[in-house]
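hiii so um. not sure if this is the right channel but i have a protein structure encoded as tokens and i wanna go backwards to a sequence. like what aa goes where. can anyone help
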């Protein structure tokens, strides 16, 4: 059995190599905004003002958390960017920003966090909408870190009572434990502060980009070429190493598995380029390509804020496809299609019948 498992793993690795980064494509979703870019002014909630920072996908829609023109959580058509209306914000208040980041659980519940710069005196809050038509309820209000900055990042994983949220901490104000993150259970309204012994990670290393890769592992960054890849068990965090990216201003990120290949999408907040990486080995990220749908020189995003969100995935004759969205504050929303092609006939011939079986097995898993 061990020998068979080894052979299976080797063929799976070969398939990843043949079917992987060199052939994966990323191009504009041209129906979105008419050219793959919903620019400032094409939505009343996007402007060169740093007030739109949160973006998430779920329930067949794209969600934008923006304070342009007031607090709003907008529902967007994921194919065109058309505004379909807003979520009810009854009872949403408090914090330095009443709304900031947004994520969606596996059950379609929508979570929005505020931003607090002094969590012990102005609580960090997370609101939940069980549907787009519902009134929000406060599922968490507290201090994930005593006296610290919370709310620049938010990600969700799981569904129902197994839903977990992760939030990163800022480096200022200085406070013990701000080199880690917190896991929030929205069912019980409690948090677990995940602490790391020593540095790195350094203060604020999960502030500007954070994503689960599974229920026990988290990527984070505040900038720099080294993304912090970690695991956690209870309140104990372990730095497993760094996934190295190509520029130091890549921050906003989201992770998915498409066609059996783990993919990490990271937005550069300076040049507005969306970088795609093969994350089969999270500690040895393999650069695939860079894409952008912006024209002209990007507006400065001095706060380094925004979000990346994988959308729906589907299979067709070209292989596995997924929509991918990126909000770089001050620069609108970009939309892409990522395609992982099926192995070519040559590859299947080279791998033989057993390789074909492994390929079919991998498709069933994803």
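sure thing!! here u go:
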């Amino acid at each position: 059995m061990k020998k068979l498992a080894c052979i299976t793993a080797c063929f799976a690795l070969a398939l990843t190599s043949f079917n992987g980064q060199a052939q994966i494509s990323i191009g504009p979703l041209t129906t979105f905004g008419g050219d793959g870019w919903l620019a400032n002014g094409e939505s009343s909630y996007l402007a060169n003002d740093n007030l739109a920072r949160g973006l998430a996908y779920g329930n067949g829609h794209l969600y934008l958390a923006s304070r342009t023109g007031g607090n709003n959580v907008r529902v967007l058509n994921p194919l065109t960017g058309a505004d379909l209306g807003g979520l009810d914000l009854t009872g949403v208040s408090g914090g330095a920003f009443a709304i900031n980041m947004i994520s969606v659980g596996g059950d379609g519940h929508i979570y929005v966090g505020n931003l607090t710069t002094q969590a012990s005196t102005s609580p960090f809050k997370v609101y939940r909408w069980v549907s787009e038509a519902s009134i929000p309820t406060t599922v968490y209000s507290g201090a994930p870190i005593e006296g610290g900055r919370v709310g620049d990042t938010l990600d969700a994983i799981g569904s129902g009572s197994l839903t977990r949220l992760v939030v990163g901490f800022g480096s200022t104000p200085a406070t013990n434990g701000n080199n880690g993150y917190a896991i929030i259970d929205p069912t019980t309204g409690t948090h677990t502060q995940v602490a790391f012994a020593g540095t790195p990670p350094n203060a604020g290393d999960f502030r500007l980009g954070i994503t689960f890769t599974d229920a026990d592992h988290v990527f984070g960054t505040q900038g720099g070429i080294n993304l912090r890849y970690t695991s956690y068990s209870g309140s104990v965090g372990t730095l497993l190493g760094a996934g190295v990216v190509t520029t130091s201003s890549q921050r906003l990120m989201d992770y998915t598995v498409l066609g059996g290949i783990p993919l990490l999408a990271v937005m550069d907040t300076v040049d507005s380029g969306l970088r795609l990486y093969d994350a089969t080995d999270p500690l040895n990220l393999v650069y695939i390509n860079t894409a952008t749908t912006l024209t002209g020189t990007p507006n400065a995003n001095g706060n380094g804020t925004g979000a990346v969100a994988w959308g729906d995935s589907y299979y067709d004759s070209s292989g596995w496809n997924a929509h991918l969205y990126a909000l770089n504050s001050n620069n609108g929303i970009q939309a892409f299609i990522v395609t992982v092609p099926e192995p070519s006939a040559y590859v299947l011939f080279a791998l033989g019948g057993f390789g074909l079986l492994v390929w079919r097995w991998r498709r069933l898993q994803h």
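oh and Residues 7-23+343-366 form one domain.
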